[in-house]
Amino acid sequence: MRKNYNFAFLDEGSKREIRRAILKGVAIPGYQVPFASREMPIGRGWGTGGLQLTLSCIGPDDVLKVIDQGSDASVNAVSIRGLVHETTGVDTTTATQDATLIQSRHRIPERPLTRDQLLVLQVPTPEPLRTYEARETVTKRLHAEAEYTGAYLELFEQIVRYGTTTTGADHPVMVEGRYVMAPSPIPRYDNAKLNMAENLTLLGAGREKKIYAVPPYTHVESLAFDDYPFVTEEFEGASCHVCGATGVYLTQTVDPVTGEQVWQCSDTDFCAQHAAEQESEA
Amino acid sequence: MGYVAVTGGEQAIATSLDLIERKRVAGGLALDVDTILSCLPELVQQVESEGSLWAPEVAATAVKQACGSVEEAVFLMRAYRSTLERLYTSRVIDTDEMRVDRRISAAFKDIEGGQILGATRDYSHRLIEFELADETQASVRDRARELAERLADTAVPATPDALARVPRVLTYLRSIDMVRDWPVDDTEPVDITKTPLSFPAPRSVILQALSRGLTQAVIAIGYAAIRGFGLSHPTVGELRRGSVAVEIDAPGAVADAPAEDAYYLGSIPVTEVESLIVADEVDEQGEHRSALDVGYGLVVGTDESKAIAMSVLDHSLRADDVRFPTQDQEFVLYHIDGVEATGFISHLKLPHYVTFQSKLDSALRSVAEKGGEADA
After folding, report:
1. In this model, does residue B185 exceed pLDDT 60?
2. Mind listing the GO molecular function terms for this protein (chain A) (predicted)?
3. By CB count within 10 A, which of A25, A211, B17, B335 is most buried?
4. What residues of B are in contact with residue A11 (Cβ under 8 Å)?
5. Residue among B75, B80, B196 minimizing CB distance to A34
6. Quick one: A150 and A38 in the same domain?
7. Active-site residue, selected from the candidate residues A30, A47, A50, A70
8. A240 and A214 in one domain?
9. Does residue A21 share a domain with residue A112?
10. Do B369 and A162 count as a contact with CB atoms less than 8 A apart?
């Protein structure tokens, strides 16, 4: 009854199938490729899509970094990194520049990725038109016909109602002028990092059974109107209370010592490296 | 044991796992797998049914590891299942050949082969037997002996092998051409664990998704379909429970290899339901007539409510009509899987610091733009 697991958990047949879906996704940027998502040892909705991409692509020489909310130490990142390490034995790192494969939930690292790095994003809801249309058969047709009125209509309604678009993370993007794509719940601030990036980004939705991709040097444009341009989150006047950085994605937190509201880099590796640089310069 | 996203996650998880393991062993008692198989067979079968893997010992171990949480045990089974190579497709299982230990019809009183009530709690009174709290191994054995003696004089077959193959109740209705039947289709079914859902879903996909669906969800949505949010009100034409043999052809066998050459892998317990639902039929001249549709349910194990609800949903999903969510394939099939439902619900516990910051930013921007006034 006892059974040892294969390298990278999945059996080779499953990996091959997932790789075929990845290749199709790379060939059609922004198009959601259906795949037979496997049940994984972590919860559906906890990054199983990203995990399957990682496990299908990883080789013994890869160096893995896993982040959640930008942090290597976040519980789910720890759990996923542990699982991949346990089933592959690959080296892991927190330093963005040392990783060959980065699995992430909700963030793209601050440091620009290179052509030798693969970014895997975990996706909860791959369908950017889902709030507008509940049925998959219909959204599939809308994509086929590049009928994206619904996506713009939603933004339009937000502007009429609230005076501004109110998308949070997961602001829809147009990929290479063809497919509207959900960039996964990365903040709007991160959308620009997908545009003309040097690296390949793979997006995996385990529960919804979809894989899609943004190949290197692909145009990725956030949906907006000429008179209501796309806006990212604002951190005017704020800087990281740890490393002093500005112009990065910050989240609010409470200083455990003073009890004050402070801002902090969400990318903990960037923050640590930046703080170290500041120190050596001082 | 704070687990702020910044540091400490690793240590927090390790400690958390120790704590949950301590809860499992804190009572100082061990429940062995044989005891679970012997005393909690229906729990094990539910885990196998939703886990869509027939493996009693693995399922019992999962139940033990999960401290009795069905959700967790099913999750363990599914994750284990997805690492197994799928090497064979079994021969078509003909449920006419089922070794039946219970079969009833709510449609006809006298059926060929007779109604076999079998072991059921249907007519029991749901009173807690407080004496069971003091049951011992010896008293269990005494009771087993006593029951064996009492049942020796009844018509109950002594061994599973002696259980009769009984003819189907619906054979009569089929013979007088009263049911709108599905043609027999023995093409290899789509395996929903190897092929993503697409719509409209072929029937083999619908049946698989329902059969391995979250038991309580299948029952609840099936209930909605017969109560008012659907048009199916069935009569149970036949409910049969028993075991069926699973066989595979020898590797390299020709397409129509005789059954005698097949390998017998074992038998699995199943519950099968054929429901009859009155339907409106329109003939070529546009004349309406009343006809009977058949809804089909087959589940691993003995959960009869699940099997009946499945037969209701098998029928309602054929209606390709989204007036009612119970007839909407996307509504039912996307949401009936236990591992998917519990996975996504539970993911809400994960940190959402970055996305929430983004939401907050949008809300603040709106307040700034409109001075806090939102148009209705």
Report:
1. yes
2. 4 iron, 4 sulfur cluster binding; lyase activity
3. A211
4. 83-85
5. B196
6. yes
7. A30
8. no
9. yes
10. yes
Q: Of B220, B199, B181, give the one whose Cα is nearest residue B317.
A: B199
Q: Which residue segment(s) compose the domain that A114 sits in?
A: 12-222
Residues 6+ apart with CB under 8 A from B56: B37, B44, B48
B355 → closest Cβ in A41, A79, A185: A185
User: At B372, is the pLDDT very low, low, confident or very high (cuts 50, 70, 90)?
Assistant: low
Decide if A57 is catalytic.
no
* A228 domain residue, yes or no: no
A201 domain-assigned: yes
CB–CB contact A162 B84 (8 Å): no
In the three-class reduction of DSSP (H, G, I as helix; E, B as strand; rest coil), residue B96 is classed as helix
- Asked about A271 being catalytic, the answer comes back as yes
Q: A106–B354: do the CB atoms touch at under 8 Å?
A: yes
* B200 vs B193: CA distance, rounded Å: 17
pTM over 0.95: no
Catalytic residue, from A49, A240, A244, A247: name it: A240
In a domain, A49, yes or no: yes
Out of A120-129, A162-171, B89-98, B120-129, give the one with best mean pLDDT: A120-129
Q: Å from B367 to nearest chain A CA?
A: 8
A30 an active-site residue?
Answer: yes
pLDDT tens digits for B303-351? 999 999 999 999 999 876 778 999 999 999 999 999 999 999 999 998 8
Q: Tell whether A66 lies on the interface with B, counting CB pairs under 8 A.
A: no
Q: CB count, 10 Å around CB of B369?
A: 14
The residues, ordered by sequence, that sit 6+ positions from A248 with a Cβ below 8 Å of its Cβ are A110, A240, A265, A266, A267, A270
Q: Does A38 touch chain B (CB under 8 A)?
A: yes
Average the pLDDT over B199-226 and give the result. Answer: 95
Closest CA to A206 of A76, A45, A58: A45
Task: Please tell me whether residues A166 and A202 are part of one structural domain.
Answer: yes
Q: What is the dihedral of CA B296, B301, B302, B308, to 10 degrees?
A: -20
pLDDT, position B4: 40
| Residue A55: band (very low, low, confident or very high) from pLDDT cuts 50, 70, 90 | very high
pLDDT tens digits, A12-38: 999 999 999 999 999 999 999 999 999
In the predicted model, what is the mean pLDDT of chain A? 93
Q: What are phi and psi of B293, to 5 degrees?
A: -100, 155
- What's the structural domain count of chain A? 2
Are A259 and A215 within one domain?
A: no
- Record: contact B362-A1, CB cut-off 8 A: no
Are A122 and A239 contained in the same domain?
Answer: no
Contact A23, A56 (CB under 8 A): no
Confidence of residue B373 (pLDDT cuts 50, 70, 90): low
Are residue A95 and residue A206 in the same domain, yes or no? Answer: yes
Average pLDDT over residues A165-176: 92
Q: Which of A5-9, A63-67, A252-256 has the lowest mean pLDDT?
A: A252-256
List CB contacts (< 8 A) between B353 and chain A.
Answer: 69, 251, 266
Taking contacts as CB-CB distances below 8 angstroms, the residues of chain B near A35 are 196
A167 touching B (Cβ < 8 Å): yes
**Ranges of each domain in chain B:** 9-81, 95-131+160-336, 339-376
> Which residues in chain A (67-86) have CB-CB distances under 8 A to chain B?
68-71, 73-79, 82
